[in-house]
Specification:
The complex is a heterodimer of chains A (355) and B (259).
Chain A lengths: L3 E6 H11 L4 E4 L6 H10 L8 E4 L3 H13 L4 E5 L1 H16 L4 E7 L15 H6 L9 E3 L4 H18 L2 E7 H5 L1 E6 L25 E2 L6 H21 L3 E4 L6 E4 L2 H16 L4 E6 L1 E3 L3 H7 L5 E6 L5 H9 L4 E6 L8 H13 L1
Parallel strand pairs in A: 2-3, 2-4, 4-5, 5-7, 6-7, 11-12, 11-14, 14-15
Antiparallel strand pairs in A: 1-8, 6-13, 10-12
Helix pairs in contact in A: 1-2, 1-6, 3-4, 9-12, 10-11
Chain B lengths: L5 H4 L2 H4 L20 H14 L6 E5 L14 E4 L5 H11 L4 E7 H7 L1 H10 L4 E6 L2 E2 L5 E2 L18 H4 L5 H6 L4 E8 L3 H19 L4 E7 L3 H4 L3 H15 L3 E4 L5
Parallel strand pairs in B: 1-2, 1-3, 3-4, 4-8, 7-8
Antiparallel strand pairs in B: 5-6, 7-9
Helix pairs in contact in B: 3-9, 5-6
The chains are: A alpha/beta (355), B alpha/beta (259).
Chain lengths: 355, 259
C-alpha cells in the first residue's frame, strides 16, 4: 500500500498509525477525550489483518500492566488514556521504567486536578516529564502539535523506546486528539518477528533464563542500577532533543510553547510582528529531553522569554532552568480546559515587555 | 476427585523424590516448614516432565514468592502487587503457543489484585493461576489477609479477626468457579506427600486444558505460614488441617466436561 492522505481526528490518526507502525498490541480503557483510539482499533480489527492484539482492559491499572507483560516479551505494545487514567497508570509506568521495557503511552491531556474537565489542558507536564510515579526515572516525552504529528510520532516513540529500552510517552491534549486535519499516513510496516535477546519468550537451551524485574534488595547493586539509568537519561538528553524554531533569527522576545499552545503562538507572533514587536517561537517537540542548550543560546540574543502553556505554569520552570538567569522569563497560562486566543497571548506579551 | 488408590501410590514416578532439573541451586529464602518450596518443586516437576521449559513464561507476584524467579530455571516476569494476571493476559494473547502461569499469594490475588483476578478469569484467558493461600501477609511480617480466618490473630488483627469490623474471609476459588471463563478450579495442599501428588496431577491437567485453549485454570493451594502464624512447622500444619481445611475444603470445585 502506498502512503495515503486522509482527513482524521488526532486520536484516530494515532490508532491508524499504530497499526501501520507494526504494533503488536494495544491495551486500553475508555476515557474522554481519547476513547476514539480504542474505538477505532476495535473497528479496524487489526487482529485479522496484521495480527495486532487489541484488548479493552478492566481498568487503566490493568491496561498498563498488560503493556508491561507484552513489553517484557519484547513486543511493540502501547496504551492510551487521558489525565485521570494516566494517574492510575503511574504504578505500572514506574515498574516499566524500572524494568527497562520499551512501550508507548499516549496521554491526551484534559484539565484537572481530580476529575477536572474533559476539555484540553497541558497540566500534566510535571507528571510526564519529571517522573509521575515513584523513584528516579524519566520517560521519553514527545509533544505533537498537529494531527500529522499524532500519526508520525507513534513510530518515532516506538523507535526511541526500543533504542533505549525505555517507556516513551506522546503528550498530547484534548484539542489535538479531537480536531480533524489532513494527515499523510505511511505505508504499513510488517510486525517484527525478531526475538529480542532480553525478552521473556521461553528459555531455550542456548541462553540463561531471562528475568524481567525492577527489584533488587541489595542497595549497592540497586544504586549501580540507578546510575545506569541516569547515564541512559544523559545519553538521551545528548542525542534525542527535538525542537522547532519560528522567526528566532531576529527575535527580541521569544515564545516558548509546545503542542496546542505552540500553534496559538505561531499566530500570536505574526500578530505581534504586525504591531512591530519582533517575536519568535521555540517549540519543544521532545519535552524530555528538553531543548535546554538551544534555549540557553537564545537567552544571549533575546530580551525575554514568555512560556505559554495551558497550565498554572509547569514547563516555564524548565525554561528558567535552561536560561539560568540569563534573561527574563515570564509565563502566561489558561487552565480548566480554557484555550488562549492569539490576541490575548499578544496582549500578555505586551505587558510582559512592559515588565 | 476420587482418592488415590494404593496402585496409584506405588507407581514408580510417585515413589522417588528427586530435585527437579528445573530447580536452580540458589538458596531459598523461605522459612523452615513453609509450603512455597514444595509448591515450587511440584510445579518444576510438571514443567520438566511436560518438556515446557522453552515454552513457559511465569509471572511472579509481590509477596513471599516475589523471588521465585531465582528458584526455577524458566523465563519470568516480576509483576507489581496484584497485577500478575494482567501481565499474563498480554503474554498469552501475544504469544498464544506459550505456557503461561501466574503464582500469587492471598494478599496479592484476593486483596489488591481482586479486579485483575476476576476479570482475567472472566475473559477466560488461557492461563494457569496458582494461588497460594496461607491466610496471612507473610513477607511484610504477618498482617491480616483477605483470607485470614475469623478470630485468627495477626499483627493487624491482634485481638483476632472481627467480622463486624474486618469482614469475613473471602473464598476466592468459589467466586472464581462461578465465572464462565474458567474451566478448572480446584483447591489442593502440599503439607503431605499425597497432597503434593494431587497438586501435581492438578497442574498437569491445567497444562492440558491450556493446550486445548479451554479457558482459565485456577488452582488454590491452601498452605501454611509458620513464621506469620507464630507456630512450629509441625504445629502450623496441624493448625491448618484443623482450621483452614474445614473453611477452605480441598478438592475440585469446577471441572471441564471431558471431550
Amino acid at each position: 500500500m502506498e502512503k495515503e492522505l486522509r482527513l482524521m481526528k488526532g486520536n484516530e490518526a494515532i490508532a491508524e498509525a499504530a497499526i501501520r507502525a507494526g504494533a503488536d498490541g494495544y491495551f486500553g480503557y475508555p476515557i474522554t477525550p481519547q476513547s476514539e483510539i480504542l474505538e477505532y482499533l476495535m473497528e479496524a480489527n487489526p487482529q485479522v489483518t496484521t495480527g495486532m492484539v487489541v484488548l479493552q482492559a478492566e481498568s487503566e491499572v490493568a491496561a498498563i500492566n498488560m503493556v508491561y507483560g507484552g513489553a517484557a516479551c519484547g513486543k511493540k505494545v502501547m496504551t492510551s488514556s487521558s489525565s485521570p487514567g494516566i494517574s492510575l497508570m503511574q504504578e505500572g509506568i514506574t515498574y516499566i521504567a524500572g524494568a527497562e521495557l520499551p512501550c508507548l503511552i499516549v496521554n491526551v491531556v484534559r484539565g484537572g486536578p481530580g476529575l477536572g474537565t474533559i476539555q484540553p489542558a497541558q497540566s500534566d507536564y510535571f507528571q510526564a516529564t519529571k517522573g509521575g510515579g515513584h523513584g528516579d526515572y524519566h520517560l521519553i516525552v514527545i509533544a505533537p502539535s498537529s494531527v500529522q504529528e499524532m500519526a508520525d510520532f507513534v513510530e518515532l516513540a516506538f523507535d526511541l523506546a526500543f533504542k533505549y529500552r525505555n517507556p516513551a510517552m506522546i503528550l498530547s491534549d484534548g484539542a489535538i486528539g479531537q480536531m480533524m486535519e489532513k494527515v499523510w499516513l505511511k505505508p504499513p510496516k510488517k510486525r517484527s518477528e525478531e526475538i529480542l535477546p532480553w525478552a521473556t519468550t521461553g528459555k531455550p537451551a542456548t541462553r540463561e533464563h531471562n528475568i524481567i524485574t525492577s527489584l533488587d534488595l541489595d542497595s549497592e547493586r540497586q544504586e549501580k542500577f540507578n546510575m545506569k539509568l541516569i547515564a541512559k537519561y544523559r545519553e538521551i538528553e545528548e542525542k534525542e532533543v527535538r525542537f522547532e524554531e519560528f522567526m528566532t533569527d531576529d527575535a527580541e522576545y521569544l515564545f516558548v510553547a509546545y503542542g496546542t499552545s505552540a500553534r496559538i503562538c505561531q499566530k500570536a507572533l505574526q500578530l505581534a510582528r504586525v504591531e512591530g514587536i519582533k517575536a519568535g517561537l521555540l517549540r519543544p517537540i521532545t519535552l524530555f529531553p528538553y531543548p535546554k542548550k538551544r534555549l540557553n543560546e537564545l537567552a544571549d540574543t533575546v530580551k525575554g522569554m514568555l512560556a505559554v502553556e495551558m497550565s498554572a505554569g509547569q514547563m516555564v520552570e524548565d525554561v528558567m532552568l535552561s536560561v539560568n538567569g540569563k534573561t527574563r522569563v515570564g509565563h502566561y497560562g489558561r487552565m480548566g480546559g480554557m484555550i488562549p486566543t492569539p490576541e490575548e497571548v499578544v496582549e500578555n506579551l505586551k505587558s510582559f515587555i512592559k515588565g | 476427585m476420587a482418592e488415590l488408590t494404593f496402585n496409584d501410590i506405588i507407581k514408580p514416578e510417585n515413589l522417588t523424590y528427586t530435585k527437579s532439573k528445573l530447580m536452580t541451586d540458589n538458596v531459598m529464602h523461605y522459612c523452615p516448614g513453609c509450603g512455597h518450596g514444595t509448591a515450587h518443586q511440584v510445579l518444576a516437576e510438571v514443567l520438566e516432565e511436560e518438556n515446557l521449559q522453552s515454552k513457559t513464561i511465569g509471572i511472579t507476584p509481590v509477596g513471599c514468592s516475589v523471588l521465585m524467579y531465582n528458584y526455577i530455571d524458566i523465563d519470568f516476569q516480576e509483576a507489581a502487587h496484584g497485577r500478575a494476571p494482567a501481565l499474563a493476559t498480554a503474554v498469552k494473547r501475544l504469544m498464544p503457543d506459550k505456557f503461561v502461569f501466574t503464582y500469587q499469594g492471598d494478599g496479592d490475588l484476593a486483596a489488591i489484585g481482586t479486579a485483575e483476578t476476576i476479570h482475567t478469569c472472566n475473559r477466560g484467558e488461557n492461563i494457569l493461576i496458582l494461588f497460594i493461600n496461607n491466610g496471612i501477609y507473610g513477607m511484610t511480617g504477618g498482617q491480616m489477609a483477605p483470607t485470614t480466618l475469623v478470630g485468627m490473630k495477626s499483627s493487624t488483627s491482634p485481638y483476632g479477626r472481627n467480622v463486624s469490623t474486618m469482614g469475613s474471609p473471602i473464598k476466592m476459588a468459589d467466586i472464581i468457579a462461578m465465572l464462565p471463563g474458567t474451566c478448572y478450579v480446584t483447591r489442593q495442599s502440599v503439607n503431605t506427600p499425597l497432597g503434593a501428588r494431587k497438586l501435581k496431577r492438578a497442574i498437569k491437567k491445567a497444562v492440558q486444558y491450556q493446550n486445548e485453549k479451554r479457558g482459565t485454570c485456577f488452582i488454590e493451594v491452601v498452605s501454611n505460614c509458620p513464621s506469620g502464624w507464630k507456630m512450629t512447622p509441625v504445629e502450623s500444619n496441624k493448625w491448618m488441617e484443623e482450621n483452614m481445611f474445614p473453611f477452605y475444603p480441598l478438592g475440585d470445585i469446577k471441572v471441564p466436561e471431558e471431550k
